[in-house]
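[Q] Does anyone have a clean structure-token version of this?
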Amino acid sequence: MNISALNQQFGIADTLGFHEAQNGLIVADIDNPLATAKICLQGAHLLSWHPRSTAAPVVWLSEDAQLSPWKSPHSGAPICWPWFGAHADNPAYPAH
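[A] Here you go.
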């Protein structure tokens, strides 16, 4: 899905938008009264999180980070859901 389609389908005016970052990776930009955040869709990585109540970001992307379209970012924090390890009710589901 391209940036225009993502913004049209999922964007929220002045709150959620998408842009193309380094090496063509797609990043979701979140901006609300409580915080700002950037999430890389590849690898579902939180690249930055800055609560408005703090002077500096709590999570940030290193200036040395090299984003690549062939691997997940190694900076920030992975967002993993819905579970870690084996599924609680169905062992046939893949582990996460």
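[Q] Thanks! Anything notable?
[A] The two ends are 24 Å apart (CA to CA).
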